[in-house]
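User: I'm writing a tutorial on reading structure tokens. Could you give me a worked example: one chain, its sequence, then its tokens, then a sentence or two explaining what the tokens reveal?
Assistant: Sure. Here is the example chain.
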Amino acid sequence: MFGDLYRKYKDSGVVEKYIFCNVAVYIILLFIGVFSVLFNSAEVLADVKGFLELPALPDALLRRPWTLFAYMFVHADVWHILWNMLALYCFGRIFLNFYSVRHFVGTYILGGLFGAIFFVAAYSLFPYFKPLAPFATLVGASAAVIAVIVASAVRSPGYKINLLLVGSVKLSSFAIFTVLLSFLLLSGNNAGGNFAHLGGAFAGWLVAFMLNKGVDLTNIVNKPIDWISAPFRRSRVPKKKKKFVFAKGGRSADYEYNARKRSESEEVDRILEKIKKSGYAALSEEEKKRLFDASAK
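And here are its predicted structure tokens:
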């Protein structure tokens, strides 16, 4: 069973991997909760959640800095994780039409981090929240998911999505509605969470805006991840012997080969530019096939 799950995890895409991680944390906490009740040790679950939840007080956050990352993989209940993972699956796949896997990882993490910053700042700056700050905590992937949505909308505002009971709407309209709703709910029961949503939205906009300027902010996240994971990759991947292939036909064959490769590269660039302007859905079947073949090489 666990072997099959691990193989599915290994074979899945980056969006599915992040869903796996969120669901795994949720299930582990459910098991801890069951055993805590059975052994009359309810405080065990509270202690574990307290170890992972993001505190609103800055001094508490300084004592538990790992919660800046941990909180975005923890959820309060089944509806909380269900809606977040459904949104992550749908909009994560849309995101990958315009950006790379590394951009997804960076945007998700930066969205969560900015959400945490906005949450802590709100409880420190606004008098309404200060009496509640010692008890307030934040969990959930909502800020990270909204970052993915907003980054996609900035990249391709005219991209059409189909919503249940609503029909076809522009991705930009959905993103604006989501941000406005979070703002209007700042005075509600989940005010802190909605501040985090605004932080995630700002992160998504900033990532997309800076990418259009040629600056990849996701490197802030990806480069440390590369540095940490590099020793594991080196130990796991065997060195490949270099193979030298000599083209038949001498220099003229080399010219033909280079010309063909240059033509293929120009065609891929044209298709990518078309995606940039009109979205992936605007591609013909032939263009989609050429893009797939190029990515598989």
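What the tokens reveal: The longest helix spans residues 250-278. Residues 141 and 195 are 13 Å apart (CA to CA).
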